[in-house]
């Protein structure tokens, strides 16, 4: 693995490394870890990268690594830069024959996303997108249960994502993470929908297996002086006829990262909260609620859930393990691809360029709806 | 107290009696307990009412009771009939000089509500409306904290009310409660908003002290064959500039009565769930979350909360006590009124005709918005 | 109902009145509400008792009431004085032909308890003891499930009762409740075991249907200057071969009234916490945990549970309702007895003199064990 | 890192590898992964170990690795065999100059533990013991708060460890993990206390900073046909004058791994449950309960907590991260030691041979107490 971005002071880069390290399948071999060449090299040193594979920018890294012998050459490149700096390195990496992992949202604009999709199709390479929350075993369990019709016909989706970290104008007080996320030139069309709304929308589509067809959105800039939206709510229609509500806020003061989804069908409902990710609450009409737990009650868990558990029930796995599940499934699929084997459905269960492009279209559609006086705006891809 | 409605097989009438009994301030003295004269008399017998004060219809009761000497005569009449049968007995009771307690929603239509308001003003009598959930001490605590500015400027309100009991077409299978609530001739313009949405809207306005000014609503009839809506979502604007989302469903299969409200301000947020009503979660920006508990930590509780607690912390009070708080405050206010004393602000803290009229206007506005292709509809009173 | 004790400043007396009022089956008709004659009369006035039936002491009340015509005379007397003042009025009430309700622990000493039992047997009257927590519907559900063998053979009982209210030497600072409870001349042999340990022991025996046979106890006086114990732990053996642990503390600073019981059998375990009394968690070996809820899932609930529910699921009932269940079952049984009907098993399900005597023996045995250097002390009755 | 044990079908070995991998500080370089030479080699292959460093037994590994040049040679050896096979490889590793990580309990007997301690002292090498649960940041936070006197004088410790996985005689049905843990020749004097009781005792001593001085224990073999105990309860005295209760069971059917500790002091109490490890509940006398969260509210967290967090609040870390914290602190300390730097107190905060020896003495004392008819048995080291 080579990494672009993720140097000192970055947040998500270190998570990617923890996740990639975990299962002993992936080794960080090279990096262009910052747009500042000096920081790039210092960061590489922090991570014990050899000087010869510590690069001052991604262009040099891709060119140099592509020229290495195949037994040394990296198999894929991970891109963990801010949103505006995903597209160029991703395109170049694919052109030079590298598979790619990208932090979400996939690109800065829907147009870029479409070009990237085209390139993936052309090259036949794998693009993995780290919609982290779909890596949790109990999210996969929920998807499997809905897919098997356990809840009957799906009727209603409620997904919410309250965060509070942007409750003050911290982007003006030196918070680097806040600064680029609230800068329209770096973040994209929407801060709240790009940063967290896409996670929520992906989770809803992933678990239900349905697609959003229409939205009615309202976006707000709640903190005075902020250059972008930081809060929003969206009414949803899905292609299976169900309805939904998506709520996302970066200014829900006092909240951490409380992504939660509830889905109701004819026979019951599921509830999953990211803060307690090893628990899936299954509510039944006229029957007692059941608590399904990762690593326990194996007879009740789908192979898609158990494949993504490392520990027995009661030994909690968390965010890094969910992230690592995406990396592991990507790596297992890649290994199959390299060896000419056929990956299992469980291995193939990671987000790809198709999910990325829907995320970008979701942002576009929500922003358009928010500006519209019409109630409903069609989700266009 | 005299009671209209609430005979055998009724649900809410028995709750009213439990609540009214609790504190030893109110005695059930007479009743016209069913629209069916025979059942009315049998129900009165069940409740040990004297035959002389067991009436076959409300008209007879009001006339007869009004003629009794003042030391025997009831002070007020409670109306617990289905929605369509609130208005006429309420008007007549007021005309005959009786104070009134009415189950929500106050009337069948906004027009009736306005007439009732007019009559209350004319007579100077008290009309108490049983928006139960505002009777909980920790709801009052939330209101007090917001009123004192503890959370800073209010930014966002999320209120949700999932129930699952109408997940099937039970109105066609002999469920009496379901039958009238899903019958437009008895329930009003909206089932889901009349039955539970008004509770949620009232709670939001009560705690924040703000008024809804605009709504963007979507109502659904999810169960096939049902004559009325059973699910809905509403985006909200408030007169203090904050925004909100209200979700209500009677078909969230597996849910009981999970009314929950979260309100976020500049400095933090509050969270209250009716299933665990003695707990108020207070989340702070950059400080630890606090758990306030009814009956405990008196130094932290408002007098509006403590006035409505009967037991020390850890001896849970519930729904009947919340209901009883409304009755007790109404009765205390009524006693003051009869004695010429001035009630305290804590006593006066029960829902009245003003709340009732806003509830009816909320239903009207939401139904209008749901039919509109415009995003926003103004809340008109 | 006549009441002895429970005047101004008393705690449990007002709970008894709330509970007795609730269901409209019981009316407070007379009282000797304080050992201080003046306060007795003022307290009676507070409660709207007629002067003619407001007594300055219990002896006068019992004599006077016994002389009233039977259609006016009370059916039973409730004794809510401190522990040391239970026995004399209870004996006298029984002698004068009144049924009796007593707050736990039943008496000051085991010797008194045995005499009381003898008197109950002689008179054929009913003595009801308010072990409140056995009045909760989900406690009754747990008992029914164990009784039906749902968990298989019982193996282990863990019951705990942490309170924090005596964390400081508040008995020296004017706290009346603390003062008599920590005074050996008023409270009995043990404060912590008398006040709360007996509740825990009763709950364990009630739910399991087994009897404690041996204890290994350790009692502590944790707050310096206190005249009695305020904390303890007890290892238990039961007559069905299972083992248990009972923990009780009045100095668990920060705790409210967190009585909790867990019982494990061959096939699974149950967990019930008094702070969330409408929920019974049922854990199964190798199957998902189930959440049973009062008022919901009626097909899964025992008649002993549903008989004691007033509201549908999600409308929480609490401590006062649990208390009221004891009063209601006692009153229903008493009505049957007065009418010559046979009470149902559900009506008969309230604590009696047998439970009271076991409670007193539990206190004695635990105190003896605590003083012993031997590990196990036999529970002797 | 070299690993002894942990081959195919082992449980804890894979956890050690996940934990060691996570932070990129440790690399698995060699192994003797099974007592079965064939499985040892196959397991090494599974883990991509080079053939030259895949050993058929630990003796060969230690000798061969010790002979390697220092830039290739491993720095430490991890021993993850069953309990009876800890001592010999640990002694040999120390003799050959390797630092050692050992899975708990440290040895088979107290005698072995004392010899190991002696060897550690002689060699000056580091022995790290993986009492996993002390690696959680909120456990460290609890320790820091108690150490700072935030709760005042400590009064009471309740620690419980219910598991249900041994509820049936699975050791006779091919469960390898169950088989050795319930075999006295492999597990030691006590199954329940060796496997989980030591974790609970360590947690209590670690957080309070106090030592157990006396125990009153009762051990049970609940599942018929089992060769060792599987359940127990222990009353505790600590050297700071506080008292405690420790409950551990492997047959609490339906439980996963629900280690929980509550500690009460004069001013309040803390509560930590391993199933939700990122939360520390802090209860205060007469003040609202606070919820401290890993990664959030940094101003409230001790450096010992924050040093062991990898993610911001709301991105849950779990069991593998707690394990990894022990490895990371050990590795950071070892690096300091190799470089001649002084480790920080936060780095040095991992369990060592001293903790291991106390664990073995705890097992011995509890077993002796369980056989004794005396109430209290002195904890002898």
UniProtKB/TrEMBL annotation, chains A, B, C, D:
Pfam families: GFO_IDH_MocA (PF01408), GFO_IDH_MocA_C3 (PF22725). Residues 139-271 form the GFO/IDH/MocA-like oxidoreductase domain. Gene3D superfamilies: Dihydrodipicolinate Reductase, domain 2, NAD(P)-binding Rossmann-like Domain. Residues 57-128 form the Gfo/Idh/MocA-like oxidoreductase N-terminal domain. It comes from the Bacteria. One of its GO terms (molecular function) is nucleotide binding. This is Predicted dehydrogenase. It comes from Flavobacterium segetis.
């Amino acid at each position: 693995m080579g990494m672009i971005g993720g140097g000192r002071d970055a947040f998500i880069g270190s998570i990617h490394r923890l996740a990639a390290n975990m299962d002993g399948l992936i080794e960080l071999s090279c990096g262009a870890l910052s747009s500042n060449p000096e920081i790039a090299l210092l960061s590489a040193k922090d991570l014990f990268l050899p000087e010869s594979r510590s690069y001052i920018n991604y262009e040099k890294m891709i060119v140099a690594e592509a020229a290495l012998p195949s037994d040394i050459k990296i198999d894929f490149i991970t891109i963990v830069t801010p949103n505006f700096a995903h597209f160029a390195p991703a395109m170049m990496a694919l052109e030079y024959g590298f598979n790619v992992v990208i932090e979400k949202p996939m690109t800065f604009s829907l147009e870029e996303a479409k070009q990237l999709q085209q390139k993936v199709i052309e090259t036949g390479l794998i693009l993995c997108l780290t919609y982290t929350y779909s890596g949790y075993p109990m999210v996969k369990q929920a998807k499997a249960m809905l897919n098997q019709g356990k809840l009957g016909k799906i009727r209603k989706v409620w997904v919410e994502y309250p965060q509070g970290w942007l409750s003050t104008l911290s982007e003006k007080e030196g918070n680097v993470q806040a600064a680029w996320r609230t800068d329209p030139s770096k973040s994209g069309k929407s801060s709240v929908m790009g940063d967290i709304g896409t996670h929520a929308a992906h989770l809803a589509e992933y678990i239900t297996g349905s697609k959003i067809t229409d939205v009615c959105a309202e976006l707000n800039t709640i903190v005075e002086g902020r250059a972008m939206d930081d809060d929003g709510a969206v009414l949803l229609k899905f292609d299976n006829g169900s309805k939904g509500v998506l709520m996302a806020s970066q200014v829900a003061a006092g909240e951490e990262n409380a992504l939660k989804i509830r889905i109701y069908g004819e026979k019951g409902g599921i509830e999953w909260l990211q803060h307690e990710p090893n628990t899936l609450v299954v509510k039944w009409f006229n029957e007692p609620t059941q608590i399904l737990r990762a690593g326990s009650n194996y007879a009740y868990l789908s192979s898609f859930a158990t494949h993504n558990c490392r520990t027995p029930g009661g030994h909690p796995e968390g965010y890094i393990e969910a992230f690592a599940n995406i990396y592991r499934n990507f790596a297992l699929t890649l290994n199959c691809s390299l060896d000419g084997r056929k990956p299992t459905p469980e291995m193939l269960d990671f987000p790809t360029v198709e999910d990325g492009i829907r995320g970008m279209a979701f942002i576009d559609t929500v922003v358009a709806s928010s500006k519209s006086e019409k109630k409903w705006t069609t989700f266009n891809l």
